[in-house]
Amino acid sequence: MTSTVEQTSGRAAGPNHPNEPGRKGIRERLSTFLMSHIRQYGMVVALAAIVVLFQVWTGGILLKPLNVTNIIQQNGYILVLAIGMVIVIIAGHIDLSVGSIAGFIGAMAGVLMVRHDVPWIVGVAACVGIGALIGAWQGFWIAYVGIPSFIVTLGGMLVFRGATQYLLEGQSIAPMPRGLEQVSSGFLPEIGTNAVYHWPTVILGVVIMVAAVAVQIRRRRAQSRYGQSVLAMPLFVAKCAAIVLGLLVFTLLLASYRGVPIVGIILVVLTLIYAFVMRNTVFGRQVYAVGGNADAARLSGIRNRRITLLVFVNMGVLAAVAGLLFAARLNSATPQAGINFELEAIAAAFIGGASSSGGVGTVFGAIVGGLVLGVLNNGMSILGIGSDIQQVIKGLVLLAAVGFDVYNRRRGGR
């Protein structure tokens, strides 16, 4: 009897071994952290895996400096649209008109700058203003009249596609002003000559690395201050090292060619601005609240209609910027510009972790999702895979991303 009690007591005392709670606590915290950040880091890991895979399959062509530059310039306008689209989706809406708006703005740029000799800077400002007005027009019907965004923007897609054809009379307008063309195809100016690396790009990369690590440290301190779970210090250091290593490789790739493209600088600036707005401002928190639960947001004093209107105004502005970048890249305004842009932007947002039910998503995630699509397009093109197979693969990737989101929501509800 005594032996049985002693054995039972021994088994009961086993989990209370001095080292066991600590090990269990670390495992639990790590597991909880990974599950809560799986949206954020899952696609980053997937992007890295896709890059490595195509680097091997293409015999090293994918990560050649010239090709990396091409990926940035070829996908710049889609990434700009993805930033605006993820905010629309977070707010609980969708915008099917962004491709047509981008094409229409490109046509307006051609008419103003080529046919009427308007200075290109003035023309750019006018086009961005027109984009904001278009966004306000659509946002009004959605926010104040109550028509679903799907219907309003579907109508907008048809209206602005027809308006583009009308403006251009079915013909392309070229060439665009040299200043606008340089925005899409130009590079950060060099300092000095005969340098192994493009030093302005190296300096910019170092600044971004320092800023990225500083943000991680600041975020960790804030989480600790408010009693939230944080990574153990060795894992946090490893995370920061991985960020620095990734940025360093990317910087040296660009610096070994002609430096960072102007489009890349525009993307970095927009990403930083919108990431800050969505994470650290009242407006950003209100967008998440409206998308997460519109009724609760309204009862808490948030002006839902105003937030929805501003979200679509912003989408109109970014669609205009994307349209200008595309026209500058083609060096012409064409009637077919913008076709399927909205599908690429929506796919980028969902692949990057946005939820189809609203209230979830990040600007950084949308950029990662857009890069996943861009690398897939570029890698498959290098391998000579036909456009039909490319569409099938991208569709499957989108389906997998949305299915993953649905699975996570159901799992969280159990």
Task: Tell me what you see in this structure.
This protein is mostly helical and 414 residues long. The chain contains 17 helices and no strands. α4 runs parallel beside α11, α6 (120-145) packs antiparallel against α7 (149-168) and α15 crosses α16 (363-382). It is globular. The two termini are 43 Å apart.
Keywords for this entry:
single chain; 414 residues; mainly alpha; 77% helix; 0% strand; disordered N terminus
Tell me the strand percentage band: under 5%
Helix proportion range: over 70%
Shape: globular
Order of helices and strands: HHHHHHHHHHHHHHHHH
Main sheet summary: none
Radius of gyration over C-alpha positions, nearest whole angstrom: 24 Å
Q: How widely separated are the two ends? A: 43 Å
What is the count of DSSP helices, taking H or I runs of 4+ residues? 17
Structural class, by secondary structure, is mainly alpha
Average pLDDT figure: 86
Query: Count of DSSP E strands?
Result: 0
Q: Any low-confidence stretches, pLDDT <50, length ≥5? A: 1-24
